[in-house]
Amino acid sequence: MKHVLEPGHLGLRAWLNDHAYPQYRASQIRRWLFQRRVSQWNEMTDLPKRLRVALSTEFTIWTTRIAAHQKASDGTEKLLLEFGDGSRTECVLLPGASDHSICISTQVGCSMGCVFCASGLDGVQRNLTASEIVEQMLRLQLLLAPTHRISRIVVMGMGEPLANLKQLLPALDEARDPEGLGIGTRRITIYTVGIAAGIRQLANHSRRYPLAISLHAPNDHLRSQLVPVNRQHPLSDLMEAAELYFRASGRRVTYEYVMLARVNDHADHAEQLVRLLRGRTALVNLIPYNPVAGLPFRAPTEATVTRFCQILENGGVQVQVRQRKGAGIQAACGQLRRDRPVF
Ligand code: SAH
Fold first, then answer.
1. Mean pLDDT score of the chain, rounded to an integer?
2. Cβ 215 under 6 angstroms from ligand 1
3. Which of 110, 114, 309, 333 is catalytic?
4. Coil, strand or helix: which one is 71?
5. Residues 6+ apart with CB under 8 A from 234
6. Which of 3, 46, 61, 93 could form a disulfide bond with 77, CB atoms 3.0-4.6 angstroms apart?
7. Residue ranges of domains in the chain
């Protein structure tokens, strides 16, 4: 059965129209789902019974089942969701004192093949549909107390968002819509491995979401080894697209830099990074590596991270060290899925 939001906002209106129901019913349904957080048709008490029955025979509210639910001591919660076709993806709730973030996935697996990442170890199975992306938001929202709301989305789960923009952008429209989650554009960050063509496409989109680029290396030689798509989109092309995005959006671009001990954490790498980013409106996010079973990479020592950070600061590059969250529950993308065989 199709997800009720699969036809999109207009699609649901068309369905209602075909079945001789007024258009405002679509708004009511969306409010029940996003704001009143119901899980069943019969809870939508202001819809006529006949409509609820008709909806339930054609649409479903949930196309996923929760295959695993983990909670870390820092409050981070992770869901492993299984779709009707047996494929699985992950999403995470990062609760804060007043601010609750979620991390969502855009694909089952990933085809980018970054050598340190668990998500891409088995390649990509398929793109998620817009409603499957929205369903992650709804599932995570249900983990919050009724008075709390999601205030931030990071599209940094499994998969490469710019390889599935066609489904991602309508899903983010639902997140922004006041009848949906009502989250402002500037509170939704898209992470990308750095597909220059996709960044240019995003620069032409009407909504300029904050952008984070997974850089991970300051030169083409090393980056091509760690992030294989660098061979198709070398740094010169990527940095040009990033600059274009900055000019179009007016937003500082964030560069993610996962620190791998003795691979990309040398002082010389930090100096090269300064040369690459100096003069740009940029923020570097240093991420100590979250080790993945079976992969040879390790996190650097704290002293190494501090020294790297200082070189960037001294070079005039804005930098922060990202806090690791949910370490006890394998919250680095793709880890939980790999840990669970399909039964
Ligand atoms: N495909 C997108 C988004 C998914 S990955 C991208 O590449 O940005 C989200 C971020 O986590 C990326 O910066 C990715 O390189 C990083 N990452 C992947 N595996 C990691 C690990 N084991 N430890 C720390 N960061 C990791």
1. 92
2. no
3. 333
4. strand
5. 220, 224
6. 93
7. 2-60, 64-329
The arithmetic mean of pLDDT across residues 26-39, rounded, is 94
d(CA 150, CA 4): 21
pLDDT of amino acid 283 = 97
pLDDT higher than threshold 60 for residue 179 = yes
Å from CA of 49 to ligand 1 middle: 46
- Average pLDDT in the 39-63 region? 95
Helix axes 165-176, 8-18, angle to 10 degrees: 80
Instruction: Give the pLDDT mean for 41-53.
Output: 96
Query: To which residue do tokens 């129209």 refer?
Result: 17
**In the chain, what percentage of residues exceed pLDDT 90?**
86
Q: Are 46 and 24 in contact (CB under 8 A)?
A: no
Distance 105 CA to ligand 1 centre (A): 12
Does domain 2-60 match CATH 1.10.3720.10?
Answer: no
Ligand 1 atom showing the smallest separation from residue 291 Cα:
22
The answer, yes or no, to whether any atom of ligand 1 lies below 6 A from the CB of 264, is no
Q: What's the confidence (pLDDT) of residue 332?
A: 55
Binding site membership of 260 for ligand 1 (Cβ less than 6 Å):
no
Strands annotated E in the chain: 2-3, 59-60, 64-71, 77-83, 88-94, 101-103, 107-109, 124-127, 152-155, 188-192, 211-214, 253-259, 282-288, 318-321
Given CATH 3.20.20.70, say whether it is the number of domain 64-329: yes
Same fold, 2-60 and 64-329: no
Answer yes or no: is pLDDT of 47 > 90: yes
Nearest CA to ligand 1 atom 22: 290
Is the pTM value of this prediction over 0.90?
yes
- Asked if pLDDT for residue 101 goes beyond 50, the answer is yes
